[in-house]
Amino acid sequence: MQMDFLVELFRLCKASNIHTAIDTSAFYNNHDEKLLKKLISLTDLFIVDIKAAHEALHKKMTSRQLGEVFDFLNILETEKKPYWLRYVLVPGLNDSKKDIHALKKILAGLVCCEKFEFLPYHTLGRHKWECMKLRYALQKTVPAGPQHLKRAQAILNK
Questions:
Q1: Residue 36 to residue 30: CA distance in whole angstroms
Q2: What is the predicted pLDDT for the residue at 109?
């Protein structure tokens, strides 16, 4: 949604030898491939969050198709752009053995992914939903603690 601005900002950063990075959920306006390719060429690192490794759950969590994330990762792979991948670990929602095994299959095919990490779910943004008088869908979900991260990492490493 901010590609025009980022292209100009990153062009100026590159002119001053400043490292550029984008933290993204990988959803982009795919109607302007030329602009996207320009932005990718000006970006040194992408940090990409993935919310779920199964289509139905990803759609439920984000209202977007998981394929959109794969499309973006495929572009980064084709362009040989380095990126980090983070999996937002939400206890009781996307941390089952089935979920982590599906994640492992995704990670196995990635070449340009330099780093993977679990990003633990937290409730720091809950107050924003309350201020906007919106229902917080994860009201009863506990934050991901060390035990959740350790379990998920153990499953992933098998």
A1: 8
A2: 86
